[in-house]
Amino acid sequence: MTGTRRLYYEDQYMKEFDATVIDAWHNDDKTCVVLDQTCFYPGGGGQPCDTGILEGDGWHLVVERAYLDGDKIMHEGVLEGRMPEKGDKVHGAIDWDRRYRLMRMHTAAHIIGCVVKKLFNARFAGGAIGVDYSYDDYTARIKRDDLPRIEEEANKIVEAGLRHIVRIMDRDEAEKYLEKFGERLTELHEGLERIRILEIEGLCAFPCGGTHVANTREVGRIKLLKRESKGRGITRIRYTIEP
Predict the structure, then answer these.
(1) Domain check: are 59 and 123 in the same one?
(2) In a shared domain, residues 86 and 39
(3) Which of 37, 40, 154, 206 is the most buried (most CB within 10 A)?
(4) Residue 132: is its pLDDT beyond 90?
(5) How many helices (H) and strands (E) does the chain have?
(6) Which residues pair with 53 in a beta bridge?
(7) At residue 165, does pLDDT exceed 70?
């Protein structure tokens, strides 16, 4: 069985697509379908997976979860109609409103990280992207009084309308490119020969496998909500975007 072509990397704004079933099975009360190509993002880098629908002749799958298994993307959910079969033609559609907000949130995370690195020389230490609220952890002692300045600087980047550029590079090339921005690969990237780099035009760059908007202005307004000390010099910043 061949792998799944990842359409979400070819066009992050793709909402619908056509594909062919390459495998399908029941898993307890859920049905899992594997396609030759998909724009369902399977989750990763702190960003949740996409949800949506798959429709074939005589069946309809409400996709509640998409996830990566090796080189294949699984679409798991509730089936109506007959069991999908290998070779079935499929039309898929992601929940675009949800995905687009996650793209805006993920770009906001990169913008905040860019500002925190500039102001505190801190590194990203983990985080989670949500539809309503998100958080990021940084290797710095950031006080509550620092939040207004971080928010102001982040929104200056939003208002500047800078491009969010995707670059796919060989590992050695990626390491040299990241060095220009004071970044480096981590243990999360061990074993990868090709690295996906996201650059906020001229300001900062990070290795990242998520989906993002093409221009910072699309983010809207970044609102920092609170900071929390996580111990060992780690500060968590919780944030959202408006509207």
Answers:
(1) no
(2) yes
(3) 40
(4) yes
(5) 4, 15
(6) 62, 93
(7) yes
The string of pLDDT tens digits covering residues 41-95 is 999 989 999 999 999 999 999 999 999 999 999 999 999 999 999 999 999 999 9
Whether residue 151 sits in one domain with residue 86: no
H helices present in the chain, as ranges: 7-10, 96-120, 147-160, 171-179
Q: What is the DSSP string of 129-143?
A: --SS-EEEEESS---
CA distance 205 to 213: 15
Assess whether the previous peptide bond of 42 is cis (omega < 30° from 0): no
| 8-state DSSP, 190 | T
Do 131 and 207 share a structural domain? yes
- H or E element at residue 76: strand 72-81
Domain span holding position 24: 5-94
Task: Please count the residues of the chain.
Answer: 243
- When pLDDT is cut at 50, 70 and 90, the band that residue 27 belongs to is confident
Q: Do residues 118 and 17 both lie within one domain?
A: no
Both 232 and 185 in one domain: the answer is yes
- 25 and 75: one domain? yes
Four-point Cα dihedral 68, 69, 73, 79, nearest 10: -110
- Residue 99: exposed, middle, or buried by beta-carbon count in 10 A (0-12, 13-18, 19+)? buried
Element (H, E) at 168: strand 164-170
